[in-house]
Amino acid sequence: MNETVKDIASQGFSAHSHDMAVDLYEKARLDYHIREFFILDDEDHVIGILTRNQLYSLFGGLYGYNLHMRADCASIMYTFFLSVDEKEGIAETARAAMARNESSVYDAIAITRNGRYAGSVSVRDLLLSFLKVEVELASDVNPLTRLPGNRLIQMHLQKLLRTERTWTVLYVDLDNFKAFNDAYGFPLGDQVILAAASAMRESFPEDAFIGHVGGDDFVIICSEADALPCARKMTSCFSRETFTLYTEEDRQRGYIQSADRDGNRRMFPLVSMSVALISSSLCHPAGMEELSGIAARTKKKAKKIEGNSIVSAS
């Protein structure tokens, strides 16, 4: 899942703009492994492409060879090509490749390093790697909420800690969920978890990362500007959605009666959310261990507050 196009790129074939195109045609004719040449300028920037099919089309036929035998690559190259930096992710590159015009959708992709040609990757290799990524992603999706699981969450958090941009992580946990589960049963307990996931999706923008650690624990990664207003909207949505899951009697009195861990009958408030909000502008964790420690302390403060609570780490 951390693979980039650099991991699947090959050396590929290239030529310079002033090279004779007929020489490329002869090379392609003698070596069936050659599917295309990427055309470079004098500083090795990619400026065009000549595929095997294009060369055969230009040099084939009755007059094609004589017509183009003195042409250099720059004069007949095609300028519609896809070029990506070697650090680009496989999934993003695959989507860009498939979004191309139908006439060029199966052309190889040029890989660059610091703007200069570094190799190429075929669409076949790209799609096979993309499929592998999709399978790995699917294996780490929570079966109930369909949200990314713990492995993907850890990957995103580690990436955050290496970035210089500001970020906010929200650790969300449900209060009194066990008591609800014990009183109402697992099917309705699943509805509470689904209500939490739904409230998160409804409240945060599409570019936010929402992950389900497991049970009633979630992690959200978003911009600092979105964090607090979206968290407030999320807790409000969650309370509204879960309120309907209670019996009329429990809704009227505002609590449920259930056994605690020792088997004693107790009154438990309605299920709510505790949110620990950690912004990089206020906290600067050096690694995952420190981030986890800050999250644990902040969530502990949030859980001491009855009902929905949002506590920022400082």
Could you describe the 3D structure shown?
By secondary structure, this protein is α/β, with parallel strands linked by helices. Helix content is 43%, strand content 22%. The protein has a five-stranded mixed β-sheet with strand order 8-9-7-12-13, with helices on both faces. A three-stranded mixed β-sheet has the order 1-2-3. Helix 1 (21-30) crosses helix 2 (52-59), helix 8 (177-184) crosses helix 9 and helix 9 (186-203) packs antiparallel against helix 10 (224-243). The longest helix is centred in the last third of the chain and has 20 residues, at 224-243. It is elongated. The mean pLDDT is 92.
Let me know the largest β-sheet.
Answer: 5 strands, mixed
Note the total helix count.
Answer: 12
Order of helices and strands: EHEEHHHEHEEHHEHHEEHHEEEHE
Spans of at least 5 consecutive residues with low confidence: none
Binned strand content: 15-25%
Radius of gyration: 28 Å
Helicity range = 40-55%
Quote the distance from N terminus to C terminus: 33 Å
On the 0 to 100 scale, the average pLDDT is 92
SS class? alpha/beta
Number of strands: 13
Strand order of the largest sheet: 8-9-7-12-13
- Shape type: elongated
List its salient traits:
three-stranded mixed beta sheet; single chain; alpha/beta; five-stranded mixed beta sheet; 314 residues; 12 helices
